Amino acid sequence: MTPPARRAALTEGPITRTLLLFSLPILGANVLQSLNASVNAVWVGHFLGESAFAATSNANLILFFLLGVVFGIGMATTIMVGQTVGAHDIPEARRVVGTGLGFFVVISLLVAIGGFIATPAMLRAMGTPHDAQPYAIEYLRIIFIALPAMYLYTFLGMTLRGAGDSRTPFVFMLVSVILDIALNPLFIFGLGPIPRMGIAGSAVATLIAQTGTLLALLVWLYRKKYFLCIHRNELRLLVPDVAILKSLLAKGLPMGAQMVVISSSAIIMMSLVNRHGSQTTAAFGAASQLWTYIQMPALAIGSAVSSMVAQNVGAKRWDRVAGIGRAGVLTNFALTGTLVLIIYLFNRAALALFLGSDSSAIGIAQHLNHIVVWSFLLFGVTFVMFGVVRATGAVMLPLVVLIISMWLVRYPFAALLEPVIGADAIWWSFPVGSLVSLGITTVYYRRGTWKKAHMLPATPPPVAAVEPVV
């Protein structure tokens, strides 16, 4: 089957315009996902108290950590699908999807079961405040029940983006968010035969919304006869192809490990924050909600860059790769810089959405925002460069950079200076880590050894001269 023109569009046309149009639905989906989490946090923070809000902050960090366990396989599938679609090798793309999907289902179920059982132990290990632990256990265990649906929906969305379709994941994310936002107050406070569930109700709303949206997406894909769908007579594709699985694991595990490094670092940092009490934890949780929005343009652009570069590598259009990187950096400065400016101008008002204008934690949150927010510009540049190099199959350097900046720089900086300058050591560790990460990544990108990497097991791409992004 010859793919429609729009699936090959990432290898054609003006680079900046193509990147922007492809990344906007990804950004929109990220905004919707974060808006959903933020609205849920508003319900919890305003009506269930600071202890419940601190509980969701701790629980969501664990969820993000476990997402990293399977994220890498999804990202590797995205890149491999992108390269095969760029090369117009649709049968190979379907084999990649089948192998990834079969493996993904098994792993997501194992993670969900293990996480459900280990919830109390994980929260205790994080040093979750005692008054927040019962809320966190109640909330997180229901989230683990929803985890397979959440993971499978994420996998499908990443696969579609690898094929050049960022609009469909956005549309279904919109459906999911509308459902979740509508159901949250219903299950938190109860109505008619639905009992009042409190913080557990927020998790139940997520479970229903994610599962329903996943089923709707599957029905839509099969009714549209999407070219990557696997049918009854093709179930053999779900049995892992050994060569493809080896490549997915070799490339996916380091990318998944990147998520684990980020999330485990966040958990460790949260353990430092928790030492300063529930108010500081709540302040950090509220600021983190805003940070999620600030990071979204960089994450969306980095993901779009990976898909674009992957398709161009598959199509052997190495002449476009450097331009994609430059366009990504410039777009990041424009979008992320705008959000950074908005947060500095409306810092207290934005934080009050989560904490309430009379919260005693809001002053702490304002202060830490002043120290941290500007550093997300640096994060954006780093993430764009990560997006370029990982799309060729060079996945180890980003992992090494994250280990150095987050485990060997950020945490030691915070832990060593905390006795001297208090919680400010935690806040300053974020820009310090970002500076180190950007410096190392820039040196690696300029050396260009990542151009020799390859993703697909049989056909490594040719080396071509590629100019540095920065």
Automatic annotation (TrEMBL):
Entry membrane topology: Multi-pass membrane protein
Keyword Cytoplasm carried by entry: no
Q: Does the keyword Transmembrane apply?
A: yes
Locate the transmembrane regions by residue number: 61-85, 97-119, 139-158, 170-191, 197-222, 293-315, 327-347, 367-388, 395-413, 425-445
Name a GO CC annotation attached to this entry: plasma membrane
Q: Which NCBIfam families is this protein grouped with?
A: matE
* Protein name per Swiss-Prot or TrEMBL: MATE family efflux transporter
Give the originating organism. Answer: Luteibacter rhizovicinus DSM 16549
